[in-house]
């Protein structure tokens, strides 16, 4: 195994043992092979830099590179946007460690050598990214101590590396992202909360890059986990159409909180892009004070007639596209459409198929008006051990519901 | 009016109310954002008037009287320019200074820069504990009791995460600097003379001015004090801290104007405080022939016109507040800067097991800093002032990195430095280098006395 540091600054020789130049950069060509070092950049004084192709290398060791051709067969260097430069673009930069779910900084790269049978050339592949003390020690002493000494010394340090498969590069420039084949598919598999933590550690441009490559639903979930100011910053920089697509996937109460933080113009633009129904709901929520029951509630809640049977309700829920976190409690309405009860999902599970919902109600029936203070809401949750609480409007009609995670979020939010 | 009319009328009012409520909600959020942004600059410059700062300013005034005042205006401009560059970099790149140095200059350069920053910051931590020790000695409390207690307190406050909450209390404690303003006013200095000393020494060859103004003494001690003055108003660590604070507050380009005003406010406040401390000590100490400050009591005497017998208590309180304030920020900020630059796990949200180097560094800075102060007979004032001189010597290097980074168009886009900014910042760096050379040269010439003679 070799390390990128041991190769950068290495001396390259032709088959006759003549010095050709120093290795200054290593390139991967992601379009060809994801981790193979495709090109080596050689420099020698005032001469024009050359490129060595992967099949022109006969032997590599720390500090030495032997070619199987002489220098006349090398091609002169021309910059190529589709190549990933390891020294400039990867060393010292931040990457996302998918397995560890965090942002780390690259100290060095581990390279594995394989000999190609046909012509005996040596290919190098990046296998791991070093983010620990070993890589740090190699970087520090490279060129100051003999390679052997550095190797022995660093072996005493604890290793910390990430498999290349679990590395996600961050590239703010969308064009380059395509050329370098950087996708964020692996990121989408992370939990939104982890994704949000990662985004908080990155710079604004990098955050923007990540959110723009996620699918709308993942983006919405990750966005909802970010703090208010970051949410606003990210959405302000998106085009309203994309922003609306993402916000549409959010719960209406989260969407309203987010829109309230945007500048009035952006907020209006986004609202116009939202489907009418969605926009109506959010506009309604926007009118409530953030610290009132109306500001905490969600308009996406489930209510059914109290005479419906358990089976009817289950069948109905299945055809609706209700977010599952709104199913903890199902609210009942009477013939005048006023709130008449609440049924917890547990009781629904245990009920007989034909049992009417009316018989499953939890007692007592608690609800709050939209202008109730958040303190009062929290007290009710505490007192009755609620999972969800209905918010009622005129004539006792339910207009929204507050779920326990709205309450927890508020209790936890650092002021 | 029919019932329908009344109902419509009520409905219209209801709608208007809703619109108002909606707007009120926006305004309230805006205000919260604004208040959250306003701050890093002000906090940075206040933290910066720490124990080392107070002693350096006091010593400057006591030793050379008004003859150091001319440096304040150029220093103020340089302070604003250098801090603004860091704040701007924080806003545009969203990255800390050590991260940027690492990304653009590689591991080895970063490593050496950070080792030096660590050493110099450690000197500042020493100064903070020296401040605690000498402040509590004025209250008659032995340093063997006060320093370990302060170290434990600071460590716990920060690790428990409560330091943020008491930040405001420390900020309020900074109002103690007003004592210098009143003390200076009560001491009745010659304000015209003081004002004339603010102009650069070159103009002092003007006939009438020459008669009033003290000539600039060209001696090692004077250069040392100048270096200390610059080092304490423009400490390298405050550049790292400010940029990190701006990044952490998530100031976007839209709120940048507010941040710049905040930095300007901070710079002006800092320089006004320095002005009054120097005028005050010049009038009370220098003028009465008390030119040396060897312990806290000497410096406290500057507050006699205001507080009389209470001057020691007032000074001690202010010094203690400043020391604890800085001690609660400086070691933590240092640990962050080092770990982020070198890529170690960092952050108070991590467990000690997850971020051993971060917590280790943080703890070591406090424990070793406090322990060194406990050495019997440690020269507290000298430690404080020399730590500020070290700041001054490191400053040109840090400024060079800042300048190289802030002029990179690929990083900063349209927000690269203007020519004026570059000129001011390069001049500051060069002036510091010149001052350092002058300091070395003059102390070699006067080898018998040496630069530290000024502090004896």
What features would you describe in this structure?
The complex is a heterodimer of chains A (415) and B (456). By secondary structure, chain A is α+β, with helices and mostly antiparallel strands. Helices cover 37% and strands 24% of the residues of chain A. Chain A folds into three domains: 161 residues, PRC-barrel domain (SH3 type barrels, Roll); 98 residues, Alpha Horseshoe (MgtE N-terminal fold), CATH 1.25.60.10; 110 residues, Roll (CBS-domain). In chain A, the strands form five sheets. In chain A, strands 2, 3, 4, 5, 6, 7, 8 and 9 form an eight-stranded mixed beta sheet that branches. A four-stranded antiparallel beta sheet of chain A has the order 1-12-13-14. Chain A has a three-stranded antiparallel beta sheet with strand order 11-10-15, covered by helices on one side. The longest helix of chain A has 11 residues. Chain A is elongated. The relative contact order of chain A is 0.07. The model of chain A has no long low-confidence stretch (mean pLDDT 85). In chain B, helix 16 packs antiparallel against helix 17 and helix 18 packs antiparallel against helix 20. The relative contact order of chain B is 0.19. The chains are: A alpha+beta (415), B mainly alpha (456).
Name the poorly predicted regions of chain B.
448-456
Percentage of residues assigned to helices of chain B: over 70%
Can you say what the CATH homologous superfamily of chain B is?
Amino acid/polyamine transporter I
Number of strands of chain B: 0
Q: What is the CATH level 1 assignment of chain B?
A: Mainly Alpha
The assembly state of the depicted protein chains is: heterodimer
Domain module tally of chain B: 1
